[in-house]
Amino acid sequence: MPGVDLALVREVLSGLPVADGAATPIDPRPFLMPAPLDYEDESVDPITASLARAAMQVVASSGLEAATLMRVCRAARVTTGAAAPRFASLRELHRFTFDQALEQVVLGNAAIANDLINVPPVDAQVAFARGALAPNRQLWRRYRQEMAVAACHDAEIATMMRESFDRTNRS
């Protein structure tokens, strides 16, 4: 990338002191973003939350094609009968999972951005980048990538993702 000092970027993202003092490393711990689908409240019943987390894990590890309802239910440690009243189809489960994960990522990003308002811009960018790349976001990144790959071959998935992004952008 022209004009970008990749060594400096690596130093900044690693949290090591920057040699030329261009950025002041700050403690990123207060700015770690929550992992998607970690429901701390009672907004979603435990079985639905478990199915959504399991769907995300199965898709992230094996791809959308391998994420059968049986496999997701096994990962969630629930029966397929427990999933049936909550989701009419596997596509509906994937839609719910993607919507919920995306919404939580966006809300987490907004909360972090609000916390960084009084931080110098360079430090804020570093803290935000480190938070977004934190290990608790790894599952979200892999899941989102697998869904994007599936969307290249499946127009219904592409439409579902586009609608989720549109809803998130409006709120």
How would you sum up this structure, described in words?
By secondary structure, the protein is mainly alpha-helical. It contains 8 helices and no strands. α2 packs across α3, α2 (46-62) packs across α7 and α5 runs parallel beside α8.
Main beta sheet: strand number and arrangement?
Answer: none
Q: What distance lies between the first and last C-alpha atoms, to the nearest angstrom?
A: 33 Å
* Annotation field: number of helices: 8
Return Rg in Å.
19 Å
Q: Tally of extended strands? A: 0
Low-confidence parts: 15-33
Going by helix content, strand content and strand pairing, the class is mainly alpha
- What do the pLDDT scores average to? 79
* Sequence of secondary-structure elements: HHHHHHHH
Can you lay out the helices and strands and say which pair or pack?
Elements: H1 6-14, H2 46-62, H3 69-76, H4 80-83, H5 90-115, H6 121-132, H7 138-153, H8 155-170
Quick description:
The protein has eight helices and no strands. With 171 residues, it is an all-alpha fold. Helix 7 packs across helix 8.
Keywords:
171 residues, mainly alpha, globular
